[in-house]
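Consider the record:
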Amino acid sequence: MKLIKWTLAALVFIGVSSCSTFQEKSTEDMEEETLSSMKTWFEENGVDDDVLQDSFERYFSTNDITDPSDSKVDQYMDILSFIQDPGSFPPMTDKSKVKGMMDDLGISSNDVKNKKHLDYYYDYYMKNKEAVDTTSTYYVFGATIETVNKIPKLGSPALVAKTLKNQMDKADLRKELYQKTIMMFFYFDMAMHISGK
């Protein structure tokens, strides 16, 4: 397990040093266009991404994992810390709602396993990879998705949470794109494996 944990971090780091930093688009442009792609996908399938995000955040706050009076940055860092070393996950009261949204989006359990529900980010990142600033949080998320797509056994929630938490710029958690992408990394997987109604 220690070797696997090191490997994901190393692959992301190696990408930082090897990827070209020539930038045709700014990081802000990429963030905006990636978020727009996600929102379009949700809207076209009749799913409210804000409702899903509220459900995700409420799961952690009602189980005293986060404090809703804290900043979003602190709340999402607490979420990543919990997923990195959860002990056990409390039951999900919104499980049927989340699974219904998965159905509306056409996301199967196999899609979640293969990270297809993150294609809104992955496809755009890969298309623009040579322009991505390799010191950015945008790169950390994109390289992490790329790594778990290529080596699925590295995609355990705990390992992904640790990688994001340790390598991203914490301040970027104020941005909707990263909040929602963290939700997408974990919430559908949680709905498939945690008890609830």
